[in-house]
Write a structure and sequence with these properties.
The complex is a heterodimer of chains A (about 100) and B (about 200).
Chain A: H1 3-15, E1 19-22, H2 39-48, E2 54-58, E3 66-70, E4 75-82, E5 85-92
Parallel strand pairs in A: 1-5
Antiparallel strand pairs in A: 2-3, 3-4, 4-5
Helix pairs in contact in A: 1-2
Chain B: E1 10-15, E2 20-34, E3 37-47, E4 53-56, H1 61-72, E5 74-81, H2 82-94, H3 102-113, H4 117-126, E6 136-144, H5 146-159, H6 164-174, H7 180-194
Antiparallel strand pairs in B: 1-2, 2-3, 3-4, 5-6
Helix pairs in contact in B: 3-5, 3-7, 4-5
The chains are: A alpha+beta (about 100), B alpha+beta (about 200).
């Protein structure tokens, strides 16, 4: 699935609250999970992200699942879909701005 | 309800321990957000194989947010003469708030000082009133959000009064004089906001 279609579907999932947050110990705080980024802010950030700021790769648990990683300025955003449920995370980028 | 996950829901989720996608069951329970920060009553999924917490539902974002805010809060206990305690209750009643909602008044008091800490430092130091010599009979616990804790810290520096109780007693006296209009305005505003 291409970036624009995936992005549109992820935004739709955010609108419909049809998403979850994966939990991994030691991972940086997911600001969408903690409410420090609101769903509306997350949608706006996704809308502003362009294909040149995104890459996809197969999930190492299941290669049929594509993980999209978006790196708009200051952010590290990740999303993928499993059984119609989206896993979405928003982290502040660790790269120097 | 489509946007709320119910206890007992079973969904697929990635399990870092099992290193694969697993079936996981949602229920309310604790989640360790960071080292030494456990958040209770989160709707989270545990792996049906190993029991690890593997996912959380967006409906619990408010629990994480308030736990993070609570950690940043500044908790303090102040002691007041009964007369100053009555003064706070009187002002709360006048604003239409519960007379027992002390935190609201103290927030209003500190909001009225925000951005004026330097200017008020001298006035706080110079306050002298009979009520400041009355016996300290009442204890009030305050839980101040980070930005109000910062106001308090700046006032401590500007007034050179380190004791928080002493500082707030003096501020209360100013709340009946120099700051009365600003505090009344903030109290009214917060009363509407809480309502």
């Amino acid at each position: 699935m291409g970036f624009n279609v995936s992005k549109r579907q992820a935004i739709q999932a955010l609108h419909e609250r049809r998403f979850r947050h994966e939990r991994r110990s030691g991972e940086n705080k997911n600001l969408l999970e903690t409410g420090e980024v609101t769903i509306e802010e997350a949608i706006r950030l996704l809308e502003l992200t362009r294909g040149t700021e995104a890459t996809s790769s197969p999930h190492h648990f299941d290669r049929s699942v594509d993980i999209w990683v978006l790196r708009p300025r200051g952010w590290y955003i990740k999303f993928y879909v499993v059984d119609l449920c989206w896993f979405i995370s928003f982290h502040p980028s660790e790269e120097k701005l | 309800m489509k946007s709320i996950v119910m206890e007992g829901s079973i969904e697929k989720a990635p399990c870092a321990h099992c290193q694969r996608f697993v079936q996981a069951t949602y229920s309310y329970g604790p989640v360790e957000l960071e080292l030494n920060l456990v958040v209770e009553d989160v709707m989270r999924a545990t792996c049906n194989q190993c029991g690890a917490v593997v996912a959380t539902a967006p409906q619990s974002a408010h629990r994480f947010k308030s736990a993070l805010q609570d950690r940043e809060d500044r908790r303090t206990t102040i002691r007041l003469p009964q007369e100053l305690h009555d003064f706070v209750s009187l002002n709360l009643s006048a604003a239409g708030a519960e007379a027992s909602h002390f935190e609201l008044y103290f927030r209003a008091l500190l909001l009225a000082c925000r951005g004026r800490e330097e200017e008020l430092g001298g006035a706080i130091g110079e306050v002298d009133d009979e009520v400041l010599h009355r016996p300290l009979r009442v204890t009030v616990n305050l839980n101040l959000r980070q930005h109000l804790g910062q106001v308090l810290s700046k006032l401590q520096v500007a007034s050179k009064i380190k004791n928080v109780s002493e500082l707030i007693r003096r501020l209360l006296v100013l709340g009946d004089g120099l700051l009365s209009q600003d505090v009344a305005h903030e109290t009214q505003r917060l009363t509407y906001a809480y309502a």
